[in-house]
């Protein structure tokens, strides 16, 4: 938003719809609501503050009606000039329109798609050099830095090269900084299929410093899409401020500026409004006489502007005194607006002063609730600490139990291996016992059989053979006794 929008917000809020009587003084609440918007968006108002604004305007209207003693109606039916309608393109000293996208003025190309060739040629002014883009490229764009922050109103594009495709639909984006976090769409426009210069007026003028031109579609089936030049027209902050000051100063200041500046400023054919604070310069008959002369001057100026080819807005070459006078009028207007605002503030203070105790009680209750919430939060924090400590102890106990279980598992495994070893040893011993038992039984049976044979032999033979058999049977008796004793020991052990 330009600087003069903050100094003279009346000019930017003039087109805002209002149900109350229009007023020339700057409404502070409205300025705060629209301070972050563009001048062209001043037609929208904040619905939540609409009632307060209406009350402020009504209060200001009553103040003005109380001061109007002459009854001439000079303070009624004022017309605030439309800043959008009163502004035009800036002109160079030669009379040509000022191109903010010219390389000679300081504009430059910052970025473009990688398929583009000769991007800087569209700012050079040489019609034989151009930007060449393959029509098959998906995203054809170019980022341009203007010579200064500009209220962009019109752009000029052209393709002067034959045997190439013309651009058709394109999009224009703006940003106050670069690299831009988010590009603001200024307009989607469509060009004609012609090899000539074309101009496009934006639907809504916007303040911007950096432009992005994106070529979306094209005519024909040529291989290259050519752009010969890009031109940007509008006004900068200084030009806009001068236009607002001069168009809102009234016919007297216009006449002074024409005399001192040698006619260096041309006004719009519809922008010869009466300044909203003319009656601050005088009261009574003098004010009425000035209004009459202003009406004659307005007629003369209107007939002069009607004969002009177009509304130009050049700089004031020698109107320093006229501009100073306008600034003094603006200062007086601001002083009166400030006094009105002070009265309105006192009225609001008196009106809403009774609500302060309720507000204080509500704040105290809120503070008590906050203290209670803080205490609850502290309790929760302590509970969380205790729970964390308990969880830590539980985790430590779990680790201890886990280590003991691991030791027990290892001992169990060692014991199991020992048991298995003892079982194997026991099986071996059992096998050995069976072997000893079987051998003992075998020898016992053999000894019994031998003794039985010797007895039979003793019965059938004589005494001589019996003595020999008796000597042999003693050995078998010893074998039978030892085998029986061994078998008995094995059986008793089991």
UniProtKB/TrEMBL annotation:
Keyword line: Membrane, Transmembrane, Transmembrane helix
Sequence ranges of Low complexity compositional bias: 40-49
Keyword field contains Transmembrane helix: yes
Localization of this protein: Membrane
Domain spans labelled SUN: 77-237
An example Gene Ontology biological process: protein folding in endoplasmic reticulum
Record carries keyword Membrane: yes
Region span, Disordered: 13-49, 264-314
GO cellular component terms listed in the entry, alphabetical order: cytoplasm; membrane
Name under which the protein is recorded: SUN domain-containing protein
Organism: Oryza brachyantha
